[in-house]
Amino acid sequence: MAFHLRSVSLPSKRLSNEAEVEAELQSLEASISSPSATMESTCDGLRRLGDVYSHIEEIIHLPSNQVCSIQQRKELDAEMESSLELMDLCNAMQENFAELKTTIQDLLVALRRGDDASTQAKIHTYIRLVKKAQKQFKKTSKKATSDECKLVKLLLKARLAAACLLELALCLVAKEVATPKRSLVSKAFQKRSVVVCKEEQLQALECILGDFEHGAELLFRRMIQSRVALLNILSS
């Protein structure tokens, strides 16, 4: 797989109303489900979703959303409960990507030293960390709350997109070391020239893991901001 040292992000789009935010979420859903999804496109998806959360926060502050019916309040309460689970997942994934990045850094050191035993140990550590992270998604509910309220519908779609993007990101980075035919280090012990080539790809993987770590952190911050805005409505 060809790598780029940094993922390329397009300028943020200004989304002025609910319809445009929903259209952006549908675009993200299509990108997530695309068989041609890459680590770079997934990283950009995290950035785009962070922007979506900012636009949802702006929608929350609109005068038309400052007064809610009893039913709408119930729906918002239910969605806020579900969002807590996603915030925990974002926080955990930020830590997971940081751990994986550190492991790749250690793997690079082992490769440069020609320490085969340490290299193998770091590969196993990476695979173990990925499997541990994957278990967290089994605990994550993708259950939908009622979507009669337009605002709740946007929050629901954003929440589901966030969980799917984080899971896709983990799946993509897992393949880079864990899949024998595509493994970046599967032939590391055969020729030193191969090791040099693998080092360059591992450096790129280290970089993209840093991007994913930042993307998870961004989502976490944006979700907190939208949550505070919702709490202000519900407490009024």
UniProtKB/TrEMBL annotation:
This is Uncharacterized protein. PANTHER family: OS06G0725500 PROTEIN, OS08G0551500 PROTEIN. InterPro entries: BPS1_pln. It comes from Panicum miliaceum (Proso millet). GO terms for biological process: root development; shoot system development. It holds the Pfam family BPS1.
